[in-house]
Amino acid sequence: MNETNTNSREQLILGIESSCDETAAAIVAGGRRVLSSVVASQIELHRKYGGVVPELASREHLRQIVPVVREAVVQAGVKLNDVDAVAVTRGPGLVGSLLVGVTYGKVLALALGKPLIGVNHLEGHVHAVLLEAHEAGRCLDLPAVCLIVSGGHTIIYHVKSESSTGTARFSYARIGGTRDDAAGEAYDKVARLLALGYPGGPIIDRLAAHGDARAIRFGEPKMSGNRFDFSFSGIKTAVLYHVRRNPQLQPGIEARKEALARGERSADSLRVLCDAETLGLIASFQRSVVDDLVHRTLAAAEQHAARTILVSGGVAANSELRRTFEAEAKRSGLDVYFPSRALSTDNAAMIAAAGYPRFLAGQHEDATLNAEPNLPLA
Length: 378
Ligand code: KG4
Ligand code: ZN
Description:
Shape: globular
Number of strands: 10
Distance between the termini: 42 Å
Number of helices: 14
Helix content: 40-55%
Bound molecules: 5'-O-[(R)-(carboxyoxy)(hydroxy)phosphoryl]adenosine, zinc ion
């Protein structure tokens, strides 16, 4: 038996994630210690389409799932038979993509004679934050408000602890969410409009630092009803109209299209092709999205008397979002937690971590487990 095993009697969960465009597998010990986390990204495959193409995604998951799981087991220094349970994302997500993980997870659990656990992808994002908070020895003060903000989701949940035994079991209530585009989707669409490549979030994050965020004032989305709801389709359209009204931005867009076609997509090579006006537009867009996310989440925390804010999902990797949340939460006397950048975007460590309390509670699935593309968390 190797060192990892002798050192720990913690139970090992193999997590499998395939809900969108990342094929991922991870081994997590005791629900908290990440022994391995392998992610095969499909960004290169979808890049030329400017977004995820579902058919291509499921085919690529089929190609990747076996080697990715094998790699996670090898990197963890364990044997497949040492695994105590298989936890797999059952939804929400793209049905064809989900089916690959669900089917493979089912067959693997059956073949190994180990329990199968079905995990909600959104609960996985919540656990991504908890994983690292625990690892860093930080103790969360619940109830919390959790913002999940990615390419597919922008939702605020109220998170309460369900147990007093120290095993993380939570209940969720939906406070608000986007009525149209997710925030990450807005980043990706604006990046496409301005010829900044795909995915849009990381490049806009880098370029925005060089622009004047006060250059353009985008108004708040006009919405009646729930004040914790979001809308990002308006700002995307506002950027489109701005570009149409300002033809002087066009030569830069053409130059960047050519650079992208040559494979020059780094922030440095695109930045020299952005004039001050374009950088101002990028910075103003980001400022507006970040302010909206932070202010509505803080208002939700206040309304629900939460002391803690959790932020997770691909957009949680955004540096401006992190800085603003940290500054504003401090001012309001709240604690704010983010996952590391690696665990912000889709991964399987968060799925294994979310599966662990279900495993302990005996919430096992049988061979009827199915992909649920619209599975809600609350
Ligand atoms: O969580 P994720 O990997 O997949 C989904 O479940 O959607 O999130 C991907 C999204 C993309 O829209 C991407 O543009 C965005 O997260 N993203 C970012 C950053 N890094 C990734 N958005 C803003 N700033 C970033 N640094
Ligand atoms: Zn996700």
